[in-house]
Amino acid sequence: MPKKFSMLQEFKEFAVRGNVIDMAVGIIIGAAFGAIVNSLVADIIMPPIGLLLGKVDFSNLFVVLKPGTTPGPYASVAQAKAAGAVTINYGLFLNQVISFLIVAFAVFLLVRAINRLKRQQPPAPPPPATKNCPFCCSAIPLKAVRCPYCTSSLEAEARTS
């Protein structure tokens, strides 16, 4: 019994991790988005295209490979399937390809927007650690009071700046 409790405890810890929950939410939203895109393609995009191409219903474009128990011709994919015919449903495939392209483009736009948000401005350069000696123009530490190159005293300059 303790082993089962341990496994249940381990599963609970796994399930309530933030990234697992985020992934589950993403999958659910993705499935809903896929359904919306499929409806967009089947119900909004393809009917006008079919109308422009001579009242073609893309969801019923198919080729009969083997007739069913009732010989064809079949008016729709549903009739062909009901008769037991073997068909290649290229119209449904075309709808799915268009749906995929729309989803892929939407994901591209989403990733592009996220990448733009993640980009940060380069950090400001650190303040200089050196200054130039006013006498010999050599680079010396900011806190120097005497130039190590020309041995000039910088105390008077340090008090004025």
Structure description:
This protein has 161 residues and is mainly α. It has two domains: 17-118, Large-conductance mechanosensitive channel, MscL, domain 1 (Non-ribosomal Peptide Synthetase Peptidyl Carrier Protein, Chain A); 130-160. Helix content is 56%, strand content 8%. The chain has five helices and four strands; from the N terminus they run H-H-E-H-E-H-E-E-H. The chain has helices at residues 2-15, 18-52, 77-82, 90-118, 155-160; strands at residues 63-66, 86-88, 130-132, 139-141. The strands form two sheets. Strands 1-2 form a two-stranded antiparallel sheet. Strands 3-4 form a two-stranded antiparallel ribbon. Helix 2 (18-52) packs across helix 4. The radius of gyration is 36 Å and the shape is elongated. 6% of the residues are buried.
CATH class of the largest domain: Mainly Alpha
| Number of H- or I-type helical stretches | 5
Uncertain ranges? none
CATH topology of the largest domain: Non-ribosomal Peptide Synthetase Peptidyl Carrier Protein, Chain A
* Residues in β-strands, percent: 5-15%
The biggest beta sheet is recorded as: 2 strands, antiparallel
Oligomer: single chain
Number of strands: 4
First and last CA, distance: 77 Å
How many structural domains in the coordinates?
2
CATH architecture of the largest domain: Orthogonal Bundle
Written as H for each helix and E for each strand, in order along the chain, the element string is HHEHEHEEH
